[in-house]
Structures are given as C-alpha cells and as structure tokens.
Amino acid sequence: MAAELRNDRFLRALRREPTDTTPIWVMRQAGRYLPEYRATRGRAGSFMGLATNPEFACEVTLQPLDRFDLDAAILFSDILTIPDAMGLGLSFEQGEGPRFARPLRDAAAIDALVVPDMDGELRYVMDAVRLIRNELDGRVPLIGFSGSPWTLACYMVEGEGSRDFARVKALAWNEPMLAHRLLDTIARAVAAYLVAQAHAGAQALMVFDTWGGLLGPGPFRELSLRYMAQVVDALKADPVSRELPAILFSKGAGGQLEAMADTGCAGLGVDWTLDIGEARRRVGDRVALQGNLDPSVLRATPEIVAREARAVLDAFGNHPGHVFNLGHGITPEVDPENVKVLVDTVHEHGRVIRGR
Questions:
Q1: Parallel, antiparallel, or unpaired: how do β-strands 288-290 and 90-93 relate?
Q2: What is the pLDDT averaged over residues 36-57?
Q3: Domains defined along the chain, listed by start
C-alpha cells in the first residue's frame, strides 16, 4: 500500500484548491548544476547509463529534494526514450546533444514505426517510477512526463537537435498525410507511455512541447495542439491516469494558451516571455498555471533572485492555481545556493500573499 502523501500542495494547486503557500518545483531540478548529480553520472559512465538504470535514476531524482524544500519530484529520464525504444538508435555526443543513428527520412521508415512495449523496451522507465515512488514514501508527489508528439517528431525526422527543424516542417508542408501518420503513431506511443507511468505510481503527468513555438498559429493547432489533445483524451480514457492532473507546456506558444486550456488538461506551463498575471486573466479559472521565472535570473545575485521571484508571485496574485517554476529548465552554471534562495522565497512570499 502506498504511503500517505504528506505534502500535497502541488496537487492541490493543480486542482485550483487553497494552499498554505505557493508550491514550487523546478524543471531539470535533477541536473548538472548539482555536484552530487555529476558524481552519480560519473559512476553511471554516460547520460544513457544514468537514465536507463532505475537505481541511478532514483538516486538523482531524490538529490534535489535532499537539498531544497521542493513540493514535487520529477522522474529523471529524457524525452527521447520513446523514439529510442522505436529503434532509432539514440546516443548523446559530448557537447553536441542527442543524435539518432536511423532518423526518419522516408515513408517506409515512418510506416514501419510501432508503439513500443511499455513492459519491454521501456520497462526501465516504469521500474524507475516504481522505485522512486517507493523511496519518496509519501514525502512529495512524483511527476511523470513525456515529450509532445510534435517535439519528438522534430528530433526523429531531423536526427539531431536543430535551430529550426526544417526537415520536419518540410515534411508537414509537402507530405501532410505522411506527417499526420507519424504524429498519430507518436501520440499513441506518448499516451501509452504516460498511462504506464500512471500505473507504475506517477501522481501527475506532464507533456513537454519544447518546439511548439517554432510553428505559426495554424500549424501549431494542426501539428502540435491536435496531438497533445489526443494524448489528454487517451489519459482521460484510462481509469488510473484519468485521476491524475496533466500539465501541458509548450515553450514559445504563449499566444495559444486559450486553445491549450480547451484540451481539458489541469495545468499549463508558461514560459518567461508572458506575464503570468496576463496569462491568468486570459485563462481565468479553467486551468492552473505553472511558471514562469526566466532561468537566467538564477545566475544573478541572491537579492535579485528573491526580488524577481516575488515579482512573479505578485503578478499572479492571491488566486488559487499557481505552481511556481522556471519558464524553462535550469541551466548547468547555476549556483545551488540560488535555488535554495528561490525555493525559500517562494514559500515565504506565498504565505505573505495569502495573508493579505
């Protein structure tokens, strides 16, 4: 039997229920800015060695919780686990990011894709979720996650990172039916992956649409939003995952907040290019909002970190439904002491706001 959750601020905020203060977690909170993470990665031998070993993944997931008073843990993994399990041959080159040995460059390769076996090729992820949930022992909720169908397609077609992902855009323009077949297959895989994480013990689910902002409004709705909505619908069809709040985060797509709220998700991530008070006024009481401090602020002085955190909280105001986070992932150069300042300031000022 799972331990009773002792800190449910994060889940309460996603349900837009009252909380004693604003909950906070940080995207990429387990990462290279922590010396203990770098030590564990050294023992693992490589990033993939770390991500595919449930014990190592559990260890680094818990590391930031031992340093900071965070309100949620997030599974340590990578968004590219699904395409790797589909046979594309993922590797991480030092200083160059992810690469696929077999990118999708023709219809035959796309039509050959199948949804991977969650208890086969991706069992290591589910084992990690089970282990982390057990080790958390009710301390804070555990977030499971996936990349969005569009973002995964970007990497799968390009074969590596890119500034504009021109290949997948060309596919969408020139062969739209093929592009939609690809996105549908990926969406079914993402949904199965998140449902499996829910069954393994995740208590919230997040979809990272890292490259949605590369699309114009029409293509965004057709190529990104449509398939995130398909994933949300699939989560709501499963008796376990339907009970879990789902968060959608599409970087650079602040103009699409209202349309994203229409998917039925519980929360929306907001990047730092949009005032979070404006975002709240736009979506009203339909969804919770997560965000949205500029990650670069964490490289400033502690006084500036505290000042800017308070500014985000003041912009949101004394309303339910705010999960504090960065507007994107924490960067490796950040001093961990500044993260402590951020977390403590959010909790302290969140209480002040609720006392007004």
A1: unpaired
A2: 94
A3: 9-354 (3.20.20.210)
Alpha helix stretches (DSSP H) within 203-243 = 217-219, 226-237
- Spell out the long-range contacts of 166-173 with Cβ–Cβ below 8 A and sequence spacing 24 or more: 169/214, 172/219, 172/223
11 token code pair: 């889940």
Task: Give 95 or 273, the one with higher predicted confidence.
Answer: 273
Positions marked catalytic: 28, 32, 41, 78, 155
Instruction: Say if residues 199 and 240 touch (Cβ distance below 8 Å).
Output: yes
Q: What is the mean pLDDT of residues 73-96?
A: 90
Distance CA 275, CA 157 (A): 34
- Going by the DSSP 8-state scheme, the letter that residue 356 receives in this structure is -
CA–CA distance, 34 with 205 (Å, rounded to integer) = 24
Cα 47–chain centre separation:
18
Q: Check pLDDT > 60 for residue 192.
A: yes
